[in-house]
């Protein structure tokens, strides 16, 4: 506290520290960028296998294709059997307005428009409440549902979906997300017919 | 400085969470399970250790007037390194802790140790201080996480202790449960610390 350092020294020390910090971070970023991208891609690819596992053998592209509708955008993997026919889609949508914002949801849909399974890719829902949406108890009620045979809302809002205990907002977002995926499916299916 | 004495001190009497009541925000938020507690604790330990060493190395270079900005730059650098390397190697754990890793920057334990200890002591002592303080922090996060996971989800370190269909005390996974558990743990640790002090 005794002596006051000159302004020049103060500035140059701070600049030097910031410079070294930046250099170090640039280096770490360079070596971790690829593993991080690979981890994310790996997870997405595994998720496709999980949501479409009932289809048996199928092929799908390495990277998802884009599909923009007027209200939202989605990405999807078409799954083809050995003879090149489309047997289902894994569609990635944003589930809107969860408790911690939007979250990424992958929905597997077979060629008749029925939900096969769901997978949450990344989310910020409450641990122990909202993230129970990943559990079998909640997920199983979506299987076999289509756009036509279901009222797409939680029971509290007059729909068919059982909401999670103490996580109605998450359940609403999840339900809306699955509905979005089915909407995307309908568009893709119409296009395929033409 | 006696290492064993220092260890006992940082685990009990001067434990960051239960002794000094520092860094309670990440403590309460991330300890929904024992595994999360350990993950958060070890990430913080690494940052604490590294920033303590660097701050101690630079203690005669950093001008007094700008020491806090300088410390923050050092700490933020290490936090970002932890964030990126966890995402590259421990992807699943990073997904659970995600939001809280960048917040280690503002954890007052780290700035507190830089200011109160590392800026006045040798590199070796600062290293030890960072290590033990970090482990003490991890220790209390692990205890808190265990209590909340066992009572709130009926599991420990991911192993189910009671059948999934049974009801658990849900409130322990939520924020109020964190405060409740922490309160009781504080009582317990206080008793233990007194025992150690009398034993000396």
Name a few traits of the molecule.
heterodimer; A: alpha+beta; 3 helices; B: 200 residues; mainly alpha; two-stranded antiparallel ribbon
How would you explain this protein's 3D organization?
The complex is a heterodimer of chains A (194) and B (200). Chain A has 194 residues and is an alpha+beta fold. Chain A has one domain. Chain A is built from three helices and five strands, in the order H-E-E-E-E-E-H-H. Chain A has helices spanning 7-51, 136-139, 168-193; strands spanning 65-68, 73-80, 86-98, 101-110, 115-122. Chain A has a five-stranded antiparallel β-sheet with strand order 1-2-3-4-5. The longest helix of chain A is centred in the N-terminal third of the chain and has 45 residues, at 7-51. Chain A is extended and about 75 Å long. Chain B is mainly alpha-helical. Chain B has one domain (3-199). Chain B contains eight helices and two strands, in the order H-H-H-H-H-H-H-E-E-H. Chain B has helices spanning 3-13, 24-30, 34-57, 67-89, 91-97, 108-118, 123-153, 175-199; strands spanning 155-156, 159-160. In chain B, strands 1-2 form a two-stranded antiparallel ribbon. In chain B, helix 3 (34-57) packs parallel to helix 6 (108-118) and helix 4 (67-89) packs across helix 6 (108-118). Chain B is globular, with a radius of gyration of 18 Å. The chains are: A alpha+beta (194), B mainly alpha (200). The A-B interface holds A 1, 4-5, 9-10, 13-14, 17-18, 21, 24-25, 28-29, 31-32, 35-36, 39-40, 43, 122, 124, 126-129, 165-166 and B 32-33, 36, 58, 61-66, 69-70, 73-74, 76-77, 80-81, 84-85, 87-89, 91, 95-96, 98-99, 152-153, 170, 173-174.
